[in-house]
């Protein structure tokens, strides 16, 4: 499930769209398996926000350390700031949906779907059928 989620796929079924309608817009459910994005839980987004925060801080600290280590004693502070700030924005945008799928994979591992949730997903999928 983690491997699937790292590819921005649904951790449950592996569908490549998961519940995303666009890179930023999320639907309520995976159109392939019916997995509900929020799983009827308040604060479901907090897990993905935490993953995004940790990834971005770790990446920024590592990149800053490498850049400073390579340029000591003449550290180009302004250049480093501009380059790292730009890269940080790009990393945040590119990893945003992946943090959601990874968090869902972790959530599914910790709280596997129960029979009621599986039945609800199947009923939702059946309601889509013509
Ligand atoms: Zn799915």
Please explain how this structure is put together.
With 130 residues, this protein is mainly α. 62% of the residues lie in helices and 0% in strands. The protein has a domain at 50-106. It has helices spanning 2-6, 44-71, 77-110, 115-128. The longest helix has 34 residues, at 77-110. The model has no long low-confidence stretch (mean pLDDT 93). The structure holds zinc ion. Zinc ion (ZN) binds next to loops. Zinc ion (ZN) is lined by residues 10, 12-13, 15, 30, 32-33, 35.
Which tags fit this structure?
single chain; 130 residues; mainly alpha; 4 helices; elongated; binds zinc ion
Helix proportion of residues, in percent? Answer: 55-70%
H/E element sequence: HHHH
Instruction: Indicate the radius of gyration in whole angstroms.
Output: 19 Å
Described by strand count, sense and barrel closure, the largest sheet is:
none
Count of runs of 4 or more consecutive helical residues: 4
Low-pLDDT stretches: none
């Amino acid at each position: 499930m983690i491997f699937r989620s790292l590819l921005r796929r649904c951790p449950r079924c592996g569908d490549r769209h998961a519940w995303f309608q666009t890179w930023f817009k999320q639907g309520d459910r995976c159109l392939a398996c019916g997995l509900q994005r929020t799983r009827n839980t308040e604060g479901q987004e907090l897990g993905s926000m935490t993953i995004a925060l940790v990834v971005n801080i770790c990446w920024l600290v590592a990149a800053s350390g490498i850049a400073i280590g390579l340029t000591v004693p003449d550290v180009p502070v302004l250049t480093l700031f501009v380059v790292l700030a730009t890269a940080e924005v790009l990393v945040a945008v590119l990893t945003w949906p992946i943090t959601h799928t990874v968090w869902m994979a972790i959530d599914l591992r910790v709280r596997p779907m129960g029979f009621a949730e599986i039945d609800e997903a199947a009923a939702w999928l059946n309601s889509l059928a013509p």
